[in-house]
Design a protein that fits this description.
Blueprint lengths: L1 H4 L3 H27 L6 H43 L3 E3 L2 E3 L1 H18 L3 H16 L2 H8 L10 E10 L3 H15 L3 E9 L3 E10 L4 H12 L4 E10 L2
Antiparallel strand pairs: 1-2, 3-5, 3-6, 4-5
Helix pairs in contact: 2-3, 2-4, 2-5, 3-4, 4-5
InterPro entries: MgtC-like_C (IPR048640), MgtC/SapB/SrpB/YhiD_fam (IPR003416), MgtC_SapB_SrpB_YhiD_N (IPR049177)
Pfam families: MgtC, MgtC_SapB_C
GO molecular function: methyltransferase activity
Length: about 240
């Protein structure tokens, strides 16, 4: 019964407005994500915004502005863990970073709404949408440009298919060639290949690697009797 006596209609309406604004702005951000078929779409962004608004609104009612500030810090860290769940690593590629950042933005929008900062919430939502829409043509334009090995940080993967009985010998020869070219080895992966072979993938990190030098190393290795294939692939790091 205490809830009935403590009910504050004005405070209830204030909370309703805060949550409604967080819901609308979170839904707007989520609609763009859903339209592009991203992992965290319409419902997820709306829930993140509303959830952030609820926690900040609750803290504001219980302990004023000081409580809202305190809870906002926890909202930021909590959404960080949620966003980490959307990030996936596939080989040398990392996916979901933009989705995680968008969730973080939705939480910021909800926190602003929960603190009665409606204009700031709208402004934050507009900037999140702008980052995901207006900057997209610029990103696509940059991604279409050829990779410049002298100005970009590149991940180089040198792959060898060898007889499993000569694995140690090939690794020693490859290590010697890479040391000679001054290309440090960042990672090494060895996987079975067929019935009697192994696939050796050497990952190099260098911003000044010469494609002709990598071609030379691949040609030297493939010229050996126990090496079936040798090739390399570049890729930009995240």
């Amino acid at each position: 019964m205490h809830a009935l006596f403590n009910f504050d209609f004005a405070g209830f309406l204030d909370s309703l407005v805060r949550l409604a604004i967080a819901f609308l702005l979170g839904t707007t951000i989520g609609y763009e994500r859903q339209y592009r078929q991203r992992t965290a779409g319409l419902r997820t962004n709306a829930l993140v915004a509303v959830g952030a608004a609820v926690f900040v609104d609750l803290a504001h009612h219980l302990n004023g502005a000081a409580g809202a500030v305190h809870v906002t810090a926890y909202v930021v860290s909590g959404v960080g863990f949620l966003g980490a769940g959307t990030i996936m690593k596939e080989g040398q590629n990392v996916r979901g970073l933009n989705t995680a950042a968008t969730l973080w933005g939705s939480a910021a929008v909800g926190a602003c709404a929960g603190a009665d900062l409606f204009a700031e919430a709208l402004l934050a939502a507009l900037f999140v949408l702008a980052a995901n829409t207006l900057l997209r043509p610029m990103v696509n334009s940059i991604n279409r440009r050829p990779i410049n090995a002298r100005s970009s940080e590149i991940t180089y993967q040198l792959t060898l298919i060898v007889d499993d009985t000569h694995q140690k010998e090939v690794l020693a020869e490859l290590d010697a060639l890479l040391d000679e070219a001054n290309y440090p080895l960042a990672d090494l992966d060895v996987e079975p290949f067929g019935d009697d072979g192994v696939e050796i993938t050497a990952t190099l990190m260098s911003s000044s690697a010469d494609s002709r030098e990598l071609d030379r190393i691949a040609e030297i290795m493939v010229g050996k009797d126990h090496v079936r294939q040798a090739y390399w692939n570049p890729g930009a790091t995240e």
